[in-house]
Amino acid sequence: MAESKVDYNYLGKSGVRVSNLCLGAMTFGESQFGTPTQASEQLSFEIMDKYAELGGNFIDTANVYGRGNSEKVVGNWLKKQDRRKFIIATKVRFPMDTDVNRMGLSRRHMIESLDESLERLQTPFVDLLQSHAWDNATPIEETLRTFDDLVRCGKIRYFGVSNVCGWQLQKIVDKIEMMGLNRCVTLQQQYNLLCRQPEWEEFMVCENEGIGVLPWSPLKGGILTGKFSRDVKPDAKGSRIGYIHTNESKAMQAAPAWSVYRDDDNYWKLIDSMRSMGGKYGKSVPQVALRWLIQKPVVSSVIIGATSVKQLEDNMGASSGWSLSDEEMSNLNELTPRPSNYPYEMLWRNPKDRVNEFNRSNKL
After folding, report:
1. Per-residue pLDDT for 356 more than 90?
2. Number of domains in the chain
3. 65 φ, ψ (degrees, to nearest 5)
4. What is the spatial distance between Cα 7 and Cα 297, in angstroms, rounded to a whole number?
5. Does residue 363 lie within any of the structural domains?
6. 23 occurs within a structural domain
């Protein structure tokens, strides 16, 4: 591996260090999502080669990405590498086919799914197995015991969760402590300048319990790239935002239709401010968006996607060698206020004169 051009953080309250930018593999291989920006296996290999060359050591995928195609691509690349140098993460929860038991977080499905993921990834273990979402059908005790058993038998090294709300994450933490199980080390959650709601609940739990946050969709599906103009329709074949703009039935909270932001004056003020900040440091708008996340104390690693080597290299430029000032971080915070619904506004307004740094190690 060449001289590293990235910085490293601990993976939550574990002794493992990961690059502060994690390579997300959802765009690798054919995908059921049907977007025009999926990368072929050859291009995926080129992206992973460059990521490793720059010092990246953390790759995140999921069994459901392309119904296993993403894991296969990562596995075909990984078998040619020194496995010890990479932290590999995958997920389990969503349906893989029409079988009624091929979904969820039951012991049966988790073990079966992991075995299939290991086969596709061509590795005897994964470093991080994550639940992809909460499962109302399975007792949380069963899921957590299965995670613990998989750690104990060596098939996974650590486990984490994704896409949960505050009470669910706190329940997970409390059940683990009560049952004497291996701890949950990470929370993978949508988090970006246009999605700050997790700061109210989930990240407070993470702060107090030593859980590292892995933000996904850090550029809000492309909305925070700064490459769009207010009066120009995005190219349907050149970006996910353009594709969704012409296929609004495929829009989702993490990758919204262009019409949601096109006429939003606050959004354009944010982009202008990010462009100005980037100019000061010789950095792009996406690099500013990623750097804002990297500098949040609760974040272990930011999950970036890439559909070209050039895009990867630009994103990786956010990792090391520069920082946004406290004033710039505050400016971005002010330009993207969190919804102040009750009781959050009251809880955050009142205790500002009573803070014990020993009681909460980090502040958002």
Report:
1. no
2. 1
3. -65, 110
4. 14
5. no
6. yes
| 3-class secondary structure, 62 | coil
> How does pLDDT run across 338-352, given as a tens digit for each residue?
877 888 888 777 766
> Residues 301, 18: contact at Cβ < 8 Å?
yes
Among 275, 267, 277, CA closest to 323: 277
Residue 359 located in a structural domain: no
* CATH number (domain holding residue 93): 3.20.20.100
Token representation of residue 235: 């190219």
Contact 325, 240 (CB under 8 A): no
Residue 71 lies in a domain: yes
Other CB atoms within a 10 A radius of the CB of residue 344 amount to 15
pTM of the model: 0.93
Nearest to 121 by CA among 63, 205, 51, 204: 63
Domain range spanning residue 335?
A: 8-350
Alpha helices by DSSP H, listed for the chain, are: 41-53, 69-78, 107-121, 140-152, 166-179, 202-209, 240-246, 259-262, 265-281, 285-294, 309-316, 326-335, 344-349
d(CA 25, CA 306): 8
Q: Which residues, in sequence order, are CB contacts of 260 under 8 Å at separation 6+? A: none
> Which of 245, 361, 217, 359 is CA-nearest to residue 302?
217
Active site residues: 65
Q: Give CA 47 to chain center in angstroms.
A: 18
